[in-house]
Amino acid sequence: MAAKQVKAIVQWLRPEEGGRKAPPSGLTYVTVAGFGDAPPNPDEAWSLVLEFQDQPDSELKQRVRVRFLSPEAPDELLFAGSDFQLYEGRQLVARGEVQEHE
After folding, report:
1. Which of the two residues, 66 and 4, has the higher pLDDT score?
2. Where are the domains of the chain?
3. CA distance 28 to 77
4. pLDDT tens track for 33-73
5. CATH class of 6-101
6. Which residues contact 84 (CB under 8 A, 6 or more apart)?
7. 80 near 66, Cβ under 8 Å?
8. Which of 59, 33, 63 is nearest to 51 (CA)?
9. What is the pTM assigned to this prediction?
């Protein structure tokens, strides 16, 4: 069974907000995600795969397709309107919102 994939909008944090120096380049990006208000627990964290649909705009918003890296991940977390955060280590680098299921 193919992994659930959804469309989302990601808002990259600016360096002065604690984010990356620049959004990642390339076609895909994989990192740890958090759902809800708390940072992910390292023992229970899930990684998301982002496939970039375009370049970040002037506000650092970017359209992406998102899926979990692991087939055992809780796909039910990826529903229209759900929010997620992207982390590099303990550093929050972006926030996202699922737009629709594919």
Report:
1. 66
2. 6-101
3. 20
4. 998 776 777 777 899 999 999 999 999 999 999 999 999 99
5. mainly beta
6. 8, 33, 34, 35, 48, 66, 77, 95, 96, 97, 98
7. no
8. 63
9. 0.91
